[in-house]
Design a protein that fits this description.
This protein is α+β, with helices and mostly antiparallel strands and 510 residues long. The chain has helices at residues 2-34, 44-49, 63-68, 118-129, 185-193, 195-199, 203-206, 209-237, 257-282, 295-308, 323-329, 374-384, 445-456, 460-463, 468-499, 502-509; strands at 78-84, 87-93, 102-106, 137-141, 159-163, 169-173, 179-183, 244-246, 249-251, 338-344, 347-355, 358-363, 390-396, 414-419, 426-430, 435-440. It folds into 3 domains: 1-36 and 192-294 and 464-510; 44-183, no CATH class; 295-440, no CATH class. Helices cover 43% and strands 18% of the residues. It has a 6-stranded antiparallel beta sheet. The protein has a 4-stranded antiparallel beta sheet with strand order 4-5-6-7. It has a 4-stranded antiparallel beta sheet with strand order 13-14-15-16, with helices on one face.
């Protein structure tokens, strides 16, 4: 009976291997590129790096006067002071309670940016790339392409694409008149070698999101089965006592040639192939999420965040310390490229940023500081978390198992606030901004450990000691690639025999 089951497993593994060998090889090779190159996109750090420093000398309109020009009764959701097309401007989002709405009001004369004219869009794109406007090739985007298929860009369409001879491409939204996507020749090349084949992220598939989701889930699920069958077969066939004879010598593996290599690589890297295919499937959330019992942790978390940023964003509260005065306080410390208007425990506060790592808080009713008082934040969180309370509240100076970043870009130190709830909900708060920069609860266990843990090997012991992570992951990917190469060769040999004319098959058998 066991022999029959093993024979059936061998047949299933052989033919699923024929179907999925190229896909497996594709995933392993593209995974090597994805270690260091991701899909092109624009981060907050990119945006700030390419922004002008705010010219305080040209600010003549107060925040409250600028917002008054919009004639809205309700305050905005967010407000910022930035440079736009060479002029200081207030950027209001969600004004009047309308989600997604965004408006620019110039801080030098109080006029509103009504529309994104073609000349202005070209100027914005050229400023982003540092390229001459005259060399730009302009293309009105009537449909999505490979680089604008992402869902977050849907509300920013229509787009205009500007291309330069050196391969730089900038996409400007006609809604916001801002660059929303940027690629270079190298970033596109590495995306085609890494992220796109790894995610099967091709435009025709992505246009039909449901079809793409099903293809990724089913292909990774069946690939997991193929790898698991191969692992079972390999372990069942392997003989530590060397009961097989090949070329007149005892051996533990009953094959020769490519089959022998395939079994050797499978015994070493079959588990890796199995776990990576399975964890890749988990990235698509194929199983229904469990939401029972989450309300308590979520409501307590909402109360804590509301306590930190309580109050409505009344623009008139900033008139006591106008933006020019606030910028002057930190002029010797930062080249401020973005000035956020925010609220901390009922008090109006400016957040000045040169880049994500270099910021200052400027209270309207106090002097500038590098960060908020961590002890005060913890005390506020303890009070707001009642009646459940906090199980733990402390300052972290290094990444932990649930707040990690191999690139070291996430802010440190952070305040860890762990709720005393069933889900052991965790919030990580940046004391420089009093904003949540990470969170975790037990409902995310599968995502954290079975997906990120198995798929990216995001384990503290590795990512805290790079290049240990690079060496381990690269070794496993190369071993998996070698396993897939042998499977491709075997699949080719099998199909060549099966598709050969009967006369050739008889000669090969003899």
């Amino acid at each position: 009976m066991l022999i029959l089951i093993r024979k059936m497993a061998i047949v299933c593994h052989r033919w699923t291997g024929v179907v999925f060998c190229l896909l497996f090889a594709w995933w392993f090779v593209s995974g090597i590129f994805m270690m260091y190159w991701d899909f092109p996109g624009i981060s907050e750090a990119d945006r700030l790096a390419r922004s002008e420093a705010v010219d305080a000398s040209r600010i003549r309109v107060s925040p409250s006067a600028a917002y008054a020009t919009l004639k809205q009764e309700r305050p905005p959701s967010t407000a910022q002071l930035v440079m736009f097309a060479g002029r200081p401007a207030y950027r209001f989002s969600g004004e009047g309670g309308r989600r997604g709405a965004q408006t620019l009001v110039y801080a030098d004369d109080g006029t509103r940016q009504e529309q994104c004219a073609d000349a202005l869009a070209l100027r914005v794109a050229a400023a982003w790339t540092g390229q001459p406007q005259t060399l730009a090739r302009v293309q009105e985007m009537t449909d999505v392409d490979q680089w604008t298929i992402q869902g977050q860009l849907r509300t920013l369409r229509p787009l205009i694409k500007y291309s330069w001879p050196d391969g730089e491409q900038a996409y400007v939204s006609k809604r916001t008149c801002a660059v929303v996507q940027y690629t270079t020749r190298s970033s596109r090349t590495f995306a085609h070698l890494g992220a796109i084949p790894h995610w099967l992220y091709y435009t025709p598939l992505q246009k039909n999101g449901l079809l793409w989701t099903r293809i990724v889930i089913w292909s990774s699920g069946l690939a997991t089965l193929a790898a698991l069958l191969g692992l079972i077969v390999g372990i069942s066939l392997y003989s530590p006592s060397k009961r097989y004879w090949v070329f007149g010598e005892p051996t533990g593996i009953p094959y020769k040639g490519q089959k022998r290599l395939h079994m050797i690589f499978g015994l070493f890297f079959g588990m890796v192939a199995c776990t990576w295919a399975f964890s890749g499937m988990l990235s698509m959330d194929p199983f229904p999420a469990t939401t029972a019992g989450e309300t308590g942790g979520r409501s307590a978390g909402n109360r804590m965040l509301a306590a930190l940023h309580s109050g409505r964003l009344q623009m008139g509260a900033f008139d006591a310390k106008p933006p020019r005065e606030a910028l002057a306080e930190v002029a010797s410390q930062l080249r401020v490229k973005q000035l956020d208007f925010t609220w901390f425990v009922g008090d109006p506060v400016y957040l000045a940023s040169e880049d994500p790592r270099h910021t200052r808080i400027i209270p309207v009713n106090g002097p500038a500081a590098e960060h908020f008082d961590s002890a005060r934040i913890i005390q506020i969180l303890k009070l707001a978390s009642q009646p459940a309370g906090l199980a733990e509240a402390r300052v972290l100076n290094e990444y932990d198992a649930y707040y990690e970043d191999r690139l070291g870009e996430k802010p440190l130190p952070v305040i860890l606030a762990r709720l005393n709830d069933k889900q052991q909900t965790r919030y990580y708060i940046d004391p420089r901004t009093a904003r949540v920069v990470g969170s975790y609860n037990s409902r995310l266990w599968m995502t954290r450990w079975l997906y990120h843990g198995l798929h990216s090997l995001d384990f503290p012991l590795l990512y805290k000691h790079r290049p240990a992570w690079d060496v381990v992951v690269l070794s496993l990917l190369l071993g998996g690639t070698a396993l897939c190469v042998t499977s491709v060769i075997l699949a080719w040999q099998l199909m060549r025999r099966k598709l050969a004319p009967p006369s050739q098959r008889s000669r090969a058998a003899s």
